[in-house]
Design a protein that fits this description.
Strand content: 5-15%
Strand order of the largest sheet: 1-2-3
Largest sheet: 3 strands, antiparallel
Low-confidence stretches: 43-50
Radius of gyration: 20 Å
Structural class: mainly alpha
Number of helices: 9
Mean pLDDT: 82
Length: 180
Amino acid sequence: MRMIDADSLESKLPAHSNDSDHVMTRNFAVESFRALIKAEPTVTPSPVYAKRVLLDREVRYDLQNAFPKAFLNLRLELIAYPARNTTVPLYGADTLDELNARIIEWCSREACKSNSPASMKYHLNGINQFCHTDFTRDGMEYIYTNLGNGINHDLCLRFVGEMDFNLNKLKRAVAQREGK
């Protein structure tokens, strides 16, 4: 698989056209990028991308079905819900467990604490569909409190991996960690 190097293309984009009255427009930029792509169509991706779970067609399909409004930006961030700017950093997510953990960490807040009922439903349904779980809003609130925003990434990885998303096991692990 070959990828276009956006940074290289951007550095070659002219700051302005030869016409002194011309202002950079979206169309001018798009046409400039198209010309650069034709001139330098692809570069070989670095080996770090070769093993990415995101290159798996089924994983991308499952993500798109779970979060239909989502898109991936050039920083390898999943913008799960653009209206609320729910961002999931994906760089370094090499395994499905890592991807599931990131979805849990970065979407759980909107799934249980959003001011928008539509956003709350979208995120909770998206998490449940992608992770093959059946969490309630209350369960998601417990998850967010203990795992949200990457507060305990190692425990989140254990939760999605060895605990198999079992909320009771998570509660025991949290109680044990707190010495209760």
